[in-house]
Amino acid sequence: MAEYVIKHFGIPKILFIPAFVPPMKDTPKELANHRYKMTELAIKNNPHFEISDIEFRHSGKSYTYLTIKELYEIYQIDGKINFIIGTDAFEGLDRWYESEKLRKLVRFIVFVRKNDFDITKYDNMKTKGYDFKFARMQFNDISSTGIRNMIKNNQDLSGLLPEEVERYIKENGLYKD
To answer: Is the domain of 111 the same as that of 150?
Structure first.
């Protein structure tokens, strides 16, 4: 998706920000460092990709609004930050921490995560003041939950993950239970 955004939206750099403690998921804290390392491995060979530990510098839950505010301070950003998101998460933005303030700071690049996509379903998001564009990349039904389930069931992951990430998961015994 990140490569698609660079090619089709003319964005020169993508900053990957693994969450330390996602606010809406019950995820063990010890997995945070693994998520960071896997992201680092996945993007290391692309000069347009960079990883940030911004959410690891704070203890506790990682709220997108606070991270975005901090990015504006660190990078002296002029205009809105482009934020890549799937339709599944985009539909729940109203429940995010400080969503009213967040929508003023970012332009969402929304990737379709469904086969039965209806663009008119999102008219209300425009009315609420969200700035967004849809990315028209071919839908591929892959999720982190699906990958974790495949690992639990010892299924072949060929082509779903970079080799370094797959090796890291195996070497560290991740997602077995």
So the answer is: no
